Each structure stands twice: as structure tokens, then as C-alpha cells.
Amino acid sequence: MLSVFSGSRAEIGEAHGRTHAALITSSIEVYDRLFHDFVGLRWAEARRVAERFVPMIERGFPEILDEMAGIARGAGLDLEDILTLNCRSEISLTQASGGCTALSINRDGTQWLAQNWDWRSDQLHNVVAMELRPTGAPSLVSVGEAGMVAKIGLNENGVGVCLNAIRSRTLGEGLPIHVALRKILEAESFDAATRVVTHDRVCSPAHFLIASGDGRSAGFEVHPGLPGVLEPRGGAVTHTNHLYAETATCQVEDFPRPDSGTRLTRIDALLRERLPLGAAVDAEALFAMLADHDNAPLSICRHFNPDQPAEERMETLFAVVMNLRQRRLVLRHGKPCEGEDTLTVTLGDA
């Protein structure tokens, strides 16, 4: 189900908090367990860690703190709880290694973005899809986790972004990952979106796949320094959960899971085989690639794997395909190979 919130940032935040209060509380319980499993912190300790990011947000995107405060009020929680949820990557990704396979492709004047989001299965029911209409900023659709200001999505200007987690001990100055994603989703253009990663910077490593309806796209391996940039080859950019742009790997050490390389090789092969230059692209073709089970359990579409330690079992929790020319996002909640729970959202007059 899509939640639609409009108004000032405070009003959007309060509506978000009221509507998803139970899911936000559940998200906190999930991350309390995750922080304990991976970095030995309980929630109260994680809240204290999150406070260090407030000055960075105040410098780069201060107005989003109003929305976080609104979420907290609406959900009957403290601002520190919502701040901690939105800084979960910076707190846990020194040890926690998520998944995700993402791609952009441009064919016949249409720019596409698509990805699977792989994470712990106990977060499946805390996934939310929100259409936000903030006063003075573009309308946007974000698919992510209850209580967080953004994750994966697009806006009415045709700017879209996907996310790949990177496990690294690097942490510095810049915007937290999920705050940076929201700022990108409020960008007026591809150039404005890329300034978030080159000017504001991102305080911990990740990969942002940014594209726009005018046919521009690039991958950005972000971190506190200048990001590594991955330009399209044959109209496409692909990424999983390891760094491979030389300008990033020479600055940042990452610790990917073994399946990151196999998934990247496989998505590249699928693009060559199924969508060569000149082939037509549609949402179903992209979902079919995201539903691929080659080399299971290390496949693009990830299922329960009993051979992994319990705290490391990552599964595909949702898949999205975005047509940026049409400002359209299609979500499959759960694994894309099952595809029973589908939501389509189109912004503006496209």
C-alpha cells in the first residue's frame, strides 16, 4: 500500500510517524538486534553513537531534521530514535554486509533503473512505500524502511536513485547515507543530484546509482572523499556490493561477501544475453533478471540460506523497476520471482 503525505517537513514527518508508528517500533526492535549482533551495541548505546552525525546533517541538510522530529512526534518516540534509524548504515555497516543488485539501462530514449534490495528477513514487513509532496520541494516516491526519510526511488523531475550497501570501516565527514539519498530525491536535475555526492559528500561508503529521465546515468561509489564514478557502457551501469572504480578502491578498503562478485558477473551476462543493443526494454524484462536464480543460493534473487549464520541470512525483500522518462515506479514487495504484491506509482503528468 502507498502512503501519501504532503505539507511542511514537520507535517510530513508527523503523518509518517502516526501512520507507521507500529512499523517504526518494529524497525527499532530489528535494529536493536542487528546492532547487537554485528557491533555489540544495544539501542541506547546506538542512540549515543548517532548523535555524532547531527552536526553533519545540520551543515548539509538541516531542514530534514524537522521531518525527523515530526516522525518522532507522530510515532510517540524521541528524535534520537529516528536519528538512529536514519544512521543505521553508519552504525552497523562496519560489520553488517547487506546485499542488493542494481542496474541502469538506456534504450530508445528511455532511462531505466532497477534493483533488488536484500536485507534481513525480519525487516520485510517494515518496508514502506511513500509518496511525499513537500512544500517547496519536488514530489517524490521512496521505497524503504519505516521511520527513515528515504531509500530508493524517483521524483517528479525524473531523477532516480538506487542503493548498494558497502561493508567498510571507513567513516568520516558528510551526510549519512539515507539523508543523502533523500537530498538526491529532492534534486531538480541529474547535475544537482550528483552535487550531493561530490559537494556534500557521504560520510560512509555505499554505491548510489543515479539517473534521470533525460537519459543520463552514472554510478557513484561514495565515501567521505570524492566518489568513484562509473560511466555507462553500452548504455548500462551495474553494481552489487563491492567497490571497483579505481578512484574509490585506492582510497577505501571494503569487505564484500563472496556473492557480490558472482551476482555482478551474472547481471552483466543477463544484460548481454537478453537486452543487447537494439533490444526492447520493459519492466517485465528487468523484473525477470532480478528474479534470476542462477548460482543459488548466491543468486541475484536471494532466498533463505540455512548454511549462513542466522544473523548473516540476507534475502531479497523487494524489487523495484523505474521508468524515469515516464516518472513511473513499479514495486514488488517480497521476492521478484513471486511477484504477487505489486504496486505502480506514476508522478506528475508524464
TrEMBL record:
Alphabetical list of InterPro entries matching this protein: C45_proenzyme-like, Peptidase_C45, Peptidase_C45_hydrolase
Pfam families linked to this entry: AAT
Boundaries of every Peptidase C45 hydrolase domain copy: 106-336
Name of protein: Acyl-CoA--6-aminopenicillanic acid acyl-transferase
